[in-house]
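User: Round two. Same drill as before: sequence, then structure, for each protein.

Assistant: Same drill it is. First protein:
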Amino acid sequence: MQQIRYFLAVCDKGSFTRAAQATYVAQPSLTQAIKKLEEELGGELFSRDRSGCRLTALGRLVEPSIREIVRKTQALKAEAVRFSRLNTVPLRIGVMTTIAAHHLSPFFTNFQQERPHVELELIVDSECNLLNQLDEDGLDLVISAPTSLLAEHYQSLKLYEERYVVVFNDKHRFNQMQQIDLATIQAEPYLDRLNCELRETLRSVCQGRQVNLYAAYRSNSEEWILSMVRAGIGVALMPEFTITKNADQIRVRYLSDPEIRRTICAIFPPTSAAKPEVAEVLKSLRMSF
C-alpha cells in the first residue's frame, strides 16, 4: 500500500520531487519504493524527461486498477472503523429527495425493531448523487424512482407505484371538481418542483398537448411547495404519497388526463445484495410492499 500511495502521488504531481514533498518522505525512499513496485509488475511505470515524468504504457494500464484498490481499501477501512465504534452492522441507504418520508418510515421502524443489530443510516439526496455514492461504495442501496434504464451493473426491486395528483388549498375552485386535467391546470398559477424526476417528461407532454403551465414559483423543497399551496399562491403536481392524509388546508385530486405514475424501486449492485444485512432489508422490502 505504501508503494501504491507513492505511485499515485507521482501520477498526480507529475514529478518524483513534488510527490516526495506531498507524501512527506525523502525522494530516495520514494524512488526505491517505485522501483520495487516496478519489479513486482515487471516493467517501468514512468519515463522521465526535463518537464518531470510521464506514465509508460504499463503505467497507464495499471493506474485505473491501482486507484480502484485504494478506493476499495478506504471504503473497507471506513466500514471497519464504523463497525468497531458502533459494534453494529452499518447499513447505508440512500433515499431520493422527493420520496415521502412518512410513507417509508413505518417500514424502517418495523425493520429496526425486528433487527436491532442492524444500524440504519439514511442519506437523502438527488438520484444522480445517490447513484454516484452507490458506485463509490458509499451506499449499500438506493430507494429511488428511476426515469430511464438503469446501468447493467445495477439490480432493482420494485416496491410500489404512485400516481401524480393535483394539489391545491381547501378554498380553491378545484374543490368543486372531481376530475382535473392538464388543460384545466394551465389557467392557474403553477408551482414548479425543481427536484421532480418527471419534470422533463411533464414538459414534453405539455408541449405535445399545447398546454402552457405558467410557473408562478419554483422551489427544490417539497415543504416550500406545500406551504405556498396552503397560502393560495398556486397549484402543484406531486406524487400522491407526498401528501399526508388529512393534511391541513391541502386538498388533492388525481390528474385525470394524462394519468402520470412513477415507480419506486430499491436499486443495488450485486455486491451489496451479497451482504447479509442488505439481503435482510431486501427480503423485508419484498414482504412489505
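Second protein:
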Amino acid sequence: MGAGHHHQLYRPGDTLVHRLPPQCKLVAVAAFALVVVATPREWLWAFGLYALLLGVVAFAARVPPGFVLRRMVVELPFVVFAVALPFIGLGERVPFLGITLSVEGLWAAWNILAKATLGVAASVLLAATTEPRLMLLGAQRLRLPPLLVQIAMFMLRYMDVIVDEMRRMRVARESRGFVARDVRHIPAVAKSAGALFIRSYERGERVHLAMLSRGYTGSMPVIQDLSASSRQWLTAGMLPGAALVALLGTTLVNGGLG
C-alpha cells in the first residue's frame, strides 16, 4: 500500500541506510533523540558532534542537504517560539543592538532550536530512506499494536483519494461560480466538508466489505521479509552509539575542566 504524496518525503535509493530493516532505523532514531534530549544545553560541542553524525548518515544515504533543509520547514513554529523567548524571558538581561535580552531566554531558545533541529533532521533522514509502509511494518515488528498499524496504513493508502475527492468538489464549486472569499461562505464550505465526510465513510464501508469478501480476518499479509540480523542492528546502532560516546566524552571533558 503506497501513497503518492509520501514520495515527497521518501527518496528512493539502494544505499546501506536504505537497505537497513525499518525497525532498526526506528530504534536508532529514537535512541539518538533520547541522547540529544539528555544533553545539557550548555554543552555546545556535543550538539556540533551530533550534527556531524547526521551529516555522515545523510552522506552515506546520498540525501542532499537541500532535500533535508526543504523538509525541515515543519520546525518553523518552534523557531518562532524560540526567537520570542529572549524578549519575554525573565531574570538577568544583557544588551544587544540597543535592546536587552534575557540570558535565561537565550539559553532556552538555544536549547529548543538545537534539540528540535537535530530531532527533525533525524526524522527527515528516516523518512527519506524508509518507505512509509515499511516504516509501519517495522513499528509492528517492534510490538506496536497491529490494529494501529493497519489504521495508519489505510490512512496512507487513501489520503490521496480523499484529497483528490476534495479537489474535485472544489473544482465543481468554482465551475458554478462559487469562490470562498469571506465568512459568509463558511456555511457552503461546511456543507462540502460534511459531504466529503459522508463520502469517505461510505467508501470505507465498501472497502471493508470488499476485504471481508476476499478473506480478510483482521490482519494484512506481509510478503516481505523484515527480519534483521545482528550485523544490521549493530550498523543501525552506530548512530546512537556514536552520539552516546560524544555525550560521555563531553561529560569527561567538562568534568576535567571543572
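The chain has two domains: 16-138+227-253, 145-213.

User: Perfect.
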